[in-house]
Amino acid sequence: MMATTFDSRDPMAPEFWSERFEKQFTPWDLGGVPRALRDFVARSPAPLATLIPGCGTGYEVVHLAEAGWDVTAIDFSEAAVAAAQAAAGKWADRILTADFFTFAPARAPQLIYERAFLCALPRARWPAVVQRWSELLAPGALLAGFFYFDKSPKGPPFGASEEELHHLLATHFERIEDAAVSDSVPVFAGKERWQVWRRK
Ligand SMILES: C[S@@+](CC[C@H](N)C(=O)[O-])C[C@H]1O[C@@H](n2cnc3c(N)ncnc32)[C@H](O)[C@@H]1O
Question: Which residues line ligand 1 (CB under 6 A)?
């Protein structure tokens, strides 16, 4: 079998991700809604206005929208947005082409959902991600999703240690949930955890 080759090497550029979507090399893609998110939605006392940065194929959009949640998903890759809009059917207008670092949502999110966005970016970019999360979320609002733990210097995906993630987030957030994940794709298996962090 021929190995897939890529022209774009910079994960901070939208072309990097578009090329991988176009070549159907998306090993991070679960092909559906993660179990921990389904559980979180099912036990949430009320719908939450939700932002999904770097949504990729964005299967979560339909799940949240059908549960009555006001969800907006963004991605800066046109190919990712096209895939997400195709998957979203009647909810396609919930998906926008935008760069997370400059996107200003119409409504302040009560929840930012994280999956494979932080780990898609080089570690040097993480403080800027956390800064933007903390600007977008008011005190009491939530950051929930999947966090990838790994030491390899190579990525994406780029992993954190437990201590590094804590160091990054603890100034603005307190962790209120931490659980193992049972339905990981192979690249994340045994190395990701479901966590919920509340904005201080
Ligand atoms: C590894 S994929 C994960 C996609 C999706 N969250 C999932 O769980 O399948 C990372 C995604 O983040 C997007 N992305 C990276 N940097 C971004 C940025 N600055 N603004 C918006 N999207 C970005 C990429 O285009 C890509 O679709």
Answer: 14, 17, 28-29, 53-57, 74-77, 80, 99-101, 115-117, 120
